[in-house]
Known about the structure:
The protein has 154 residues and is mainly alpha-helical. Helices cover 64% and strands 0% of the residues.
Amino acid sequence: xxxxxxxxxxxxxxxxxxxxxxxxxxxxxxxxxxxxxxxxxxxxxxxxxxxxxxxxxxxxxxxxxxxxxxxxxxxxxxxxxxxxxxxxxxxxxxxxxxxxxxxxxxxxxxxxxxxxxxxxxxxxxxxxxxxxxxxxxxxxxxxxxxxxxxxxxx
Length: 154
């Protein structure tokens, strides 16, 4: 939880000091909803790593099992999407353009990490199990219905 706290908490605070540019109320409401939803998804996804994967999202303490239940039935990277939702929510709540730029940098960095390290590592660790997962669950845009085989109850 340290990394998401730094990325979605400390850095936005350093960039804005939580000072608002007084955006319109509807944007603030949408921003609050994004922050709450992102926080809930992040907590749920982290719990899946601990309970289902018997490990953590941190590369230094990886899971023993591939995590494919819960939010992972709909999209392969719910944690990154959740952190992005929190940053976007903060940008809307505060009305600060610097957070939109920061969100773009975050998205580029996460994409490079996922493609350059995370996916190759998962493929090497879990082999065909991961390949089957990749075939049925999208990387970034969540499915409307969960992955069919083996994870409906997760």
